[in-house]
């Protein structure tokens, strides 16, 4: 049962073939069996998950009308608050913190009856592309345990690929949902900025952060998207408009007459041969399904990475100032006579990891008097240029596509000592965040040279998220009929796996 | 292109309230120089006539009705505090002894 899609599990629940308790227990058993090797979870909430599952079973038995994903287990990225459940953001500074409130995403999940299994591992405060920056140790890619599962949401993507959960929540500031999806052969969507509330999402870079759905199929992802999206008065940047019809789009998967633009600048040099092979094959499948493929140019994208590594650190240096050892989290050096400032300095030294400190210092510099215009100011102008590139491109086509990442999953440790090499991983995902539009990654095959998953990225204009699901569903269906089984059926079995 | 000296980084660390060790400062000043050189590329295209974008949504002020809403209780607000006393956050000394 744990290898099935959420839609199949929901059908089994509706028919009475299984219960949410049994389904939740099966996933807890799988976590117990494989998570020692994968390390997708930082905290497993066995008691809470079983209580939630039992309540859903009771409601179902009482004939209550339930939402489509009621009773289905989910893995939650540890950057979203859940009342009473440890939330660390992968950082030592929040070790032991139990938030006194639910994030809106969690409120919506609970309302939909989705069972939260636990909190997943991540790069500290979502800063990274490999989950190696977690203070609690790295997560391993279930396709090859010596490789990274992507980041920052590597725990969520690994949990899906290891069949520890059929659904997961991620957050995406520069690619942290899409890149982990790509390298683990799973599906992940960064909705339009403002489409899903950020209330209770611990902020890294507020103008870029966006929570979104992750799953193993496009339709499961769409159902989760609808469950968590919508306007929220508690997030001033939440969009007050109806949620795009993503489930209907994922069910129809119609691309006839749709214009798909291939971004010239996000393909070619620097992209692994096998990534390009699978990407090109996918374009042919979409053309065969009735889409028109054209090439478009976004000349300013080459500056996106540089602008991102000024804007995100600048916002992070401001956002992370709240970790001051006074109201929550750890406190270090609070001895008789110690000043608040020295306690703050010591706590932040001990509590933050290297990458977080690096970005705080970089952001502090970029925002400092005398350098502001040259760095942060210039980066904001590049943001305008990137948005204009997207607007011009969407005048010519309905969606844009590219490989999600330049390469397949690299080895744990391979890029840990070279920040710039690590940053290059996000070259194709960052422009989407800069413009605040939607982006999806779905698996499009294994690279012939290393047998590892390749991600196909689809981008749609703001609040046109349904277009990504139409194209994603069309490509998924075409690939499925070509392969005869989902890509994840080819994943090597983990020791002890159910 | 300005380059960052070790004392520049020490000053930034002080501003950011991080008590960095000497070895961290050494490592970071080298790394930051490389990163700054790479990100300085934004200056190549940031012409004076281009408007800056600080945010993806064209939002101005967003208001809610001025009505009292339920919020965290005192105990809940203090539940994660490293130290509390008399229903308040207890913090280390803020002013000097002579103050």
From TrEMBL, chain A:
One GO cellular component term noted in the UniProt record for this chain:
glutamyl-tRNA(Gln) amidotransferase complex
Gene Ontology MF terms in the entry:
ATP binding; glutaminyl-tRNA synthase (glutamine-hydrolyzing) activity
One Pfam annotation reads: Amidase
Domain (Amidase): give its ranges: 23-467
Q: Name one GO biological process term.
A: translation
**Is this entry keyworded Metal-binding?**
no
Give the enzyme's EC designation.
6.3.5.7
Enzyme class of the recorded protein, top EC level: ligase
Alphabetic keyword roster:
ATP-binding, Ligase, Nucleotide-binding, Protein biosynthesis
Reaction catalysed by this chain? L-glutamyl-tRNA(Gln) + L-glutamine + ATP + H2O = L-glutaminyl-tRNA(Gln) + L-glutamate + ADP + phosphate + H(+)
Concerning its family, UniProt says:
Belongs to the amidase family. GatA subfamily.
Alphabetical list of NCBIfam families matching this protein: gatA (TIGR00132)
Q: Which PANTHER family match?
A: GLUTAMYL-TRNA(GLN) AMIDOTRANSFERASE SUBUNIT A (PTHR11895:SF151), TRANSAMIDASE (PTHR11895)
Protein name per the record: glutaminyl-tRNA synthase (glutamine-hydrolyzing)
UniProtKB/TrEMBL annotation, chain B:
GO annotation, biological process: glutaminyl-tRNAGln biosynthesis via transamidation; regulation of translational fidelity
- What segment(s) does the record annotate as region Disordered? 74-99
Query: What SUPFAM superfamilies has UniProt attached to this entry?
Result: Glu-tRNAGln amidotransferase C subunit (SSF141000)
NCBIfam families reported for this sequence: gatC (TIGR00135)
Q: Which PANTHER family match?
A: GLUTAMYL-TRNA(GLN) AMIDOTRANSFERASE SUBUNIT C, MITOCHONDRIAL
- This protein is called Unannotated protein
């Amino acid at each position: 049962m744990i290898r099935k899609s959420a839609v199949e599990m929901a059908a089994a629940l509706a028919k009475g073939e299984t219960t949410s308790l049994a389904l939740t227990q099966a996933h807890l058993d799988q976590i117990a069996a494989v998570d020692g090797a994968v390390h997708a979870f930082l905290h497993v909430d066995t008691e809470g998950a079983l209580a939630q599952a039992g309540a859903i079973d009771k409601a179902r038995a009482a004939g209550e009308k339930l939402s489509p994903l009621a009773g289905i287990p989910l893995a939650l990225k540890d950057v979203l608050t859940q009342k009473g459940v440890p939330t660390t953001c992968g950082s030592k500074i929040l070790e032991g913190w139990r938030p006194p409130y639910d994030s809106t995403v969690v409120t919506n999940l609970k309302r939909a009856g989705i069972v939260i299994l636990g909190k997943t591992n991540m790069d500290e405060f979502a800063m990274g592309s490999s989950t190696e920056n977690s203070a609690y140790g790295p997560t391993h890619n279930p396709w090859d345990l010596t490789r990274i599962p992507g980041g920052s949401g590597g725990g969520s993507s690994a949990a899906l690929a290891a069949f520890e959960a059929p659904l997961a929540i991620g957050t995406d500031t520069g690619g942290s949902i899409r890149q982990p999806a790509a390298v683990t052969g799973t599906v992940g969507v960064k909705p339009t900025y403002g489409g899903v509330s950020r209330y209770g999402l611990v902020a890294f870079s507020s103008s870029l952060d966006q929570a979104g759905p992750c799953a193993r199929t496009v339709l499961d992802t769409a159902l989760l998207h609808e469950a968590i999206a919508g306007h929220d008065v508690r997030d001033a940047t939440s969009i007050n408009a109806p949620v795009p019809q993503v489930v209907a789009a994922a069910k129809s998967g119609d691309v006839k007459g749709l214009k798909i633009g291939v971004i010239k600048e996000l393909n070619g040099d620097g992209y692994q041969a096998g990534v390009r092979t699978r990407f090109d094959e996918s374009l042919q499948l979409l053309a065969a399904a009735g889409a028109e493929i054209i090439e478009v140019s976004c000349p300013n994208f080459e500056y996106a990475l540089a602008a991102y590594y000024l804007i995100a650190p600048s916002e992070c240096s401001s956002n992370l100032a709240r970790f001051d050892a006074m109201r929550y989290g750890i406190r270090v050096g609070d001895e008789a006579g110690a000043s608040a400032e020295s306690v703050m300095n010591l706590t932040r030294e001990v509590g933050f990891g290297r990458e977080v400190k690096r970005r705080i210092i970089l952001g502090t510099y970029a925002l400092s008097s005398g350098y502001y215009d040259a760095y942060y100011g210039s980066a904001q102008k590049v943001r305008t240029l990137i948005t204009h590139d997207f607007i011009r491109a969407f005048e010519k086509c309905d969606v844009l596509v590219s490989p999600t990442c330049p390469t397949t999953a690299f080895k744990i440790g391979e890029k840990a000592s070279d920040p710039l090499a690590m940053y290059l991983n996000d070259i194709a995902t960052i422009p989407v965040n800069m413009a605040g539009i939607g982006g999806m990654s779905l698996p499009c095959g294994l690279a012939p040279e290393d047998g590892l998953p390749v991600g196909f990225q689809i981008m749609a204009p703001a609040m046109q998220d349904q277009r990504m699901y139409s194209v994603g569903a069309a490509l998924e269906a075409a690939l499925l009929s070509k392969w005869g089984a989902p890509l994840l059926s080819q994943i090597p079995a983990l020791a002890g796996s159910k | 292109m300005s380059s960052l000296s070790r004392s520049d980084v020490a000053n930034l660390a002080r501003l950011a309230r991080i008590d960095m060790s000497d070895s961290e400062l050494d490592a970071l000043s080298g790394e930051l120089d490389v990163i700054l050189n790479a990100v300085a590329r934004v200056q190549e295209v940031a012409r004076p006539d281009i408007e800056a974008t600080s945010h993806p949504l064209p939002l101005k002020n967003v208001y809610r009705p001025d009505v009292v809403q339920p919020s965290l209780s005192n105990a809940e607000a203090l539940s994660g505090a490293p130290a509390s006393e008399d229903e308040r956050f207890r913090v280390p000394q803020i002013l000097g002894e002579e103050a």
